[in-house]
Amino acid sequence: MWKHTILAVAIAFAASDCSMREQRRQQDDFSSAFHKCRFVTSTDLADKDAPTFASYRVAVPQFTDRPRLDLKSNPTARMYRTVLRHEIAQGSNFAGHYRVAVWGCGSSCATFAVVNLNTGRVITPEEFSDTSGVYFDEDDQKAFPGSQSEDWLFAFRKDSRLLVVLGDFNEDKSREGAFYFVLDHERLRLIHSTLVKKNCEDLVQKDASAR
């Protein structure tokens, strides 16, 4: 009798283990499919109406100044003075005599500021704090040929006033895509947005039905 009981328990345990492994496999398959669906690609960001670097071309001076950081020009200047001073030391990379400084603000989160290397003035865009790039990667830079940025969430050139920010605008998933800013009279103006809508609800519904 005990042998039959032990055998029954073993069979039940094996069946339970198989069931759990199958559930884990299905969860892994769903997770993989969901992430594949959610990831933004350079094709998603293609936009024939978007402005181009060439439309905002500027001359690049042979030399730029290395001013002291103007701490009174912007609250960001005082708060992030260490990283901004480090960036200034590396010279211009944007719009002739400006420097785009990018730094992290958490997991997959980044923010930025632009520094005028002739005056030390710090410029930040209005109504923008940071961007989240959870579903963005290096492949997205293919949508912006000619970009000289080293960070995949930003696209810009040394000879252009156009700057593109990728990700979830202010970490808002409803505002995901590419956001085009232009430097105009010491202000960064948002002039165009390419919003990406990734509809992965079918996968979620199928997964819920399978459960």
Structure, explained:
The protein has 211 residues and is of the alpha+beta class. The protein folds into two domains: 2-38; 42-195, no CATH class. Helix content is 30%, strand content 24%. The protein has five helices and eight strands. Strands 1, 2, 3, 4, 5, 6, 7 and 8 form an eight-stranded antiparallel beta sheet that branches. The protein is globular, with a radius of gyration of 25 Å.
List keywords for this structure.
disordered C terminus, 5 helices, alpha+beta, eight-stranded antiparallel sheet, 8 strands, globular, 211 residues, 30% helix, 2 domains
Total beta strands: 8
SSE string, helices as H and strands as E: HHHHEEEEEEEEH
Which percent bin holds the helix content? Answer: 25-40%
Strand content: 15-25%
Give unreliable regions as ranges. Answer: 26-30, 206-210
Number of domains: 2
Briefly, what is this?
The protein is α+β, with helices and mostly antiparallel strands and 211 residues long. 30% of the residues lie in helices and 24% in strands.
